[in-house]
């Protein structure tokens, strides 16, 4: 008697299982094609990495400059020089009134004696100050730290009856902000141009691989293979190139940052600052890898789609 299990027909795998199996095969097979020509693949990834590193490096520099500008809080301080006839008691009372204002974060009162001592620290001015003697020509000064818009606060302080001169060096900050906005726009333009270059490089590389497998693709088309089935290995090939290029670009920027971090820290320390380069972290690296992989996938998809449209047999 025959075994009933032997007579049972084999059920074909489900379409979903077949889809996942082909994706896995395409992923591994495309990686194998990369390793078949390691030096050519490395050269292609290096060219793509340089194209990615330039706009990314500019974006990192602009981000650090913006952070540096935001950390220079003293540039927001407003110095109010009071009139010579303002007495000590009125200067102290005015400082208290300003500190109670919601637009003011803090107020520091600098007496004429304190102002003279701060000038005496400069050796070039020590002789001049000694020549002045007991006749101190400096007025009371109030150093105001704004809580919000320093420009509006500076305009209001100029209207005070006791104010003789209001010093607020905000022009350089406005110019720096303008340059940073311009630099950001330049970074986006460069990112678009170099991103297009990455698409062309990966597209040309995948095109060469397609040409080498032209006969195999023709057979698959005659057997009724869908465009998605044929395109899938090349999409993963482009993604591998993009992933490798993204990793190389992140590594290049990390090395450049490490080379510049030491000298920059010494320069910042000479100005009494603890500023240090930032930007190369895990989240940033993962974003670079994801973006580069997407560019490789897109470039391969564009080239493969164009090829399939040109070679698809008529009537199918």
Fold and architecture overview:
With 316 residues, the chain is an alpha+beta fold. The protein has two domains: 21-71 and 174-311, no CATH class; 84-161, Alpha-Beta Plaits. It has eleven helices and four strands, in the order H-H-H-E-H-E-H-H-E-H-E-H-H-H-H. It has helices spanning 4-7, 15-36, 38-71, 88-99, 112-120, 123-132, 150-158, 171-212, 214-222, 227-270, 282-311; strands spanning 78-82, 104-110, 141-146, 163-167.
The tally of helices reads 11
Please count the beta strands (DSSP E, at least 2 residues each): 4
Largest beta sheet: what is the strand line-up? 2-3-1-4
Tell me the count of domains: 2
Low-confidence stretches: none
Order of helices and strands: HHHEHEHHEHEHHHH
Principal-axes shape call = elongated
Q: Any idea what the radius of gyration is?
A: 34 Å
Protein structure class: alpha+beta
pLDDT averaged over residues: 79
Strand content: 5-15%
Span from first to last CA? Answer: 48 Å
Main sheet makeup: 4 strands, antiparallel
What proportion of the residues is helical, as a percent range? over 70%
Membrane topology: Multi-pass membrane protein
Organism: Luteimonas wenzhouensis
Keywords: Cell cycle, Cell division, Cell inner membrane, Cell membrane, Membrane, Transmembrane, Transmembrane helix
Function: Part of the ABC transporter FtsEX involved in cellular division.
Question: Which descriptors apply to this entry?
Answer:
316 residues; alpha+beta; Alpha-Beta Plaits; 2 domains; four-stranded antiparallel sheet; 11 helices; 4 strands; 71% helix
């Amino acid at each position: 008697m025959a075994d009933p299990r032997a007579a049972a027909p084999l059920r074909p795998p489900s379409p979903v299982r077949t889809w996942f199996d082909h994706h896995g095969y395409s992923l591994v097979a495309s990686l194998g094609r990369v390793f078949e020509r390691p030096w050519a693949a490395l050269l292609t990834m290096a060219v793509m990495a340089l194209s990615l590193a330039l706009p990314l490096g500019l974006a990192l520099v602009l981000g650090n400059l913006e952070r540096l500008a935001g950390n220079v809080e003293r540039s927001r301080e407003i110095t109010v020089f009071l009139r010579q006839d303002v007495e000590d008691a009125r200067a102290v009372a005015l400082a208290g009134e300003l500190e109670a204002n919601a637009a003011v974060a803090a107020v520091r009162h600098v007496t004429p004696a304190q102002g003279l001592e701060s000038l005496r620290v400069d050796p070039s001015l020590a002789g001049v100050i000694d020549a002045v003697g007991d006749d101190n020509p400096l007025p009371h000064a109030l150093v105001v730290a704004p809580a919000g818009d320093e420009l509006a606060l500076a305009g209001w302080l100029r209207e005070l009856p006791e104010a003789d001169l209001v010093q607020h060096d905000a022009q350089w900050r406005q110019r720096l902000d303008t340059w940073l906005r311009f630099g950001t726009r330049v970074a986006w333009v460069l990112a678009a141009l170099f991103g297009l270059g990455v698409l062309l490089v990966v597209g040309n590389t995948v095109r060469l691989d397609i040409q080498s497998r032209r006969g195999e693709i023709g057979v698959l088309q005659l057997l009724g293979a869908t465009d998605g089935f044929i395109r899938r290995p090349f999409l993963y090939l482009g993604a591998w190139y993009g992933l490798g290029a993204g990793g190389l670009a992140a590594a290049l920027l990390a090395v450049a940052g490490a080379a510049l971090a030491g000298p920059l820290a010494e320069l910042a320390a000479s100005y009494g600052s603890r500023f240090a380069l930032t930007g190369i972290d895990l989240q940033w690296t993962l974003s670079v890898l994801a973006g580069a992989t997407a560019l490789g996938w897109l470039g391969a998809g564009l080239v493969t789609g164009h090829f399939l449209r040109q070679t698809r047999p008529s009537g199918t």
